[in-house]
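Appendix B. Worked example

We walk through a single record from start to finish. Start with the input: the chain for Two component transcriptional regulator, LytTR family, Chryseobacterium taihuense, length 247.
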Amino acid sequence: MIKTVIIEDEKPAARKLERMLSLFPDLEVVANLDSVEAAVQWFAENEHPQLIFSDIVLGDGLSFDIFDKISTKAFIIYTTAFDQYTLKAFKLNSIDYLLKPIMEEDLAGAVEKFKSFIPSDQAVNSQDIKQLIKKEKTILSRILVKIGYNLKIVQTHEVSCFFSENKIVYLQTQERTYPSDFTLDELEDVLDEKKFFRVNRQFIINSDYIKNIHTSPNYKVELEFQPQEEITVSRDRVKDFKDWLVS
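Next comes the structure step. The output line below is what the pipeline stores for this chain.
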């Protein structure tokens, strides 16, 4: 049996997930934990499971705080309502990231992915986990931004570009500009590379919002961009940019 732990502070959500996991006869839920404190204590006193399903935002902190305090070789499948924690999740032992409400087919896919990582009767250490996870590509589909005391979900396909200014990375939509918690380097790793391209040190652009492309004899490439007026492709990126346009 595959020993499994659920970390979820909302009791109805925890019960629902446990019912869904009961459909997998080789999974055994050995603990249902509802806080950072409870989880740290349980992991300190019990044999660690092979698989963890964990919400991210708990009543007394983020579940990342658990794994800052204890070391585990378990695979982690995160469950949450928002995408903004994707990057940090995949720096840990995360193999998947399920957005709530969790669909049965998504859960089944995550469980199958977990099983594909571990050959029968063969142990996998934490370094092996990290190498396996590196092969997985996660794509950011939506971003949570803060507007005063309010939160707003922005779909990445609505973003015309990301740009850095005064050490803050902003995302630009047709309506307005929003600050984000990402760096451009982090975004490069999780944006859809078919749509987004880093044209210079300051900008990542979405191909859907390019109006015109201007070239000159000195190999300079400039983009008429909506809603930005003009963006220049750095010379060392021109060839890659042209290849990306036709890929």
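Two observations about the output. The two ends are 45 Å apart (CA to CA). The chain is about 30% helix and 35% strand.
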